[in-house]
Amino acid sequence: MNGSREAELREAGLRVTAGRIAVLDALGSMPHADADAIFRTVAPGLENTSIQSVHNILADLSAAGLVRRIEPAGSSARYERRVGDNHHHVVCTNCGAVADVDCVHGAAPCLSPSADAGYRIQTAEVTFWGLCPACQAATG
Amino acid sequence: MNGSREAELREAGLRVTAGRIAVLDALGSMPHADADAIFRTVAPGLENTSIQSVHNILADLSAAGLVRRIEPAGSSARYERRVGDNHHHVVCTNCGAVADVDCVHGAAPCLSPSADAGYRIQTAEVTFWGLCPACQAATG
DNA sequence: GCAGTTGTTTTGAATCATTCAAAACAAGGC
DNA sequence: GCCTTGTTTTGAATGATTCAAAACAACTGC
Predict the structure, then answer these.
(1) Which residue is nearest to nucleotide D6 (CA to C1')?
(2) Mean pLDDT score, B24-48
(3) Where does this protein hold Zn(2+) (chains A, B) (predicted)?
């Protein structure tokens, strides 16, 4: 629904532009894509656009809370539309593929450290590392 | 003990060099330092060295399991000497300071995802985000 | 329906951490 | 003490991301 994406942008106080719709659209069909993948998906449909614009749009959408940015060690930033819940990720140690994992416990911050070193904890981010199905098949 | 660091290097099958000793030394007194901080600490004591050499040394030490590399979102790679146990980290959302947190549960992988998306899970990495004591004092 | 304001995109350049590669060098085995 | 081979040096390259100014277009109000 194009309309729902428009509404989302408006509610977030952002102007509705073709680029933003296209990026939200692309993220709908390819969760955990990086800026470059999104750019390649979106570019054919937009006359003049650039990887910089995509970065810009992604930064705006992240700041507005419409997309979530994750940065697994060793790969560039990934973006996803699933926001608001406190879910986590599994990253393939071989190919870098990312998949969602539901929160281990119930609500955020979902885990409490045994000793917080004096920090005022806000959230807990869990990243699982393992072999994705495809790489299991390939490497045994 | 200089000797223990030498022994560590030898046991790992690495040659003992001034640079490696210096980097291990620096990491002993500044856990969670990034490559640049280590370079600045180490440079005065070594005639000709460069940030590239430090990167090189850190890569070797990480591969040998003598140091652990962590990459919190939004900052450059940090290194620490505490290896072998499965501990986690708290990162300050304001200044990026990192502190250790003991493993939430007992042994690695320390957590199991509710659904593993077909991945063969190897480890779980937990990053807590919050305000460090200094930033709490500064920003209230 | 149109004009103005202001947020957004474009374009181009710059930054930063990190990696790569070849030549100079030095640690440790003999 | 010499040789082999791993390590450091030096210099350049990469790639993701950010910055900045000018061109542009979405929405507001008329």
Answers:
(1) B15
(2) 95
(3) 92, 95, 132, 135
| pLDDT at A88 > cutoff 60 | yes
Closest Cα of chain A to B89: distance in Å?
Answer: 9
Determine contact, residues B104/A113, Cβ cutoff 8 Å. yes
Q: What is the token pair recorded at A99?
A: 């998949």
Closest alpha carbon within chain B to A70: B73
Could you tell me the domains of chain B? 2-79 (1.10.10.10), 85-139 (3.30.1490.190)
Pairing status of strand B33-34 against strand A98-101: unpaired
Residue A2 binned pLDDT confidence (cut-offs 50, 70, 90): low
B1 touches chain A (CB under 8 A): no
Q: Which nucleotide across the nucleic acid strands is nearest to B48, CA versus C1'?
A: D9
Judge whether A76 and A57 are in contact, CB under 8 Å: no
What mean pLDDT is predicted for residues B79-98?
92
Closest Cα in chain B to A72: B73
Strand order in the sheet with B120-131: A98-101, A88-92, A120-131, B120-131, B88-92, B98-101
Query: How confident is the prediction for chain B on average, in pLDDT?
Result: 90
- Known binding residues of A are 92, 95, 132, 135
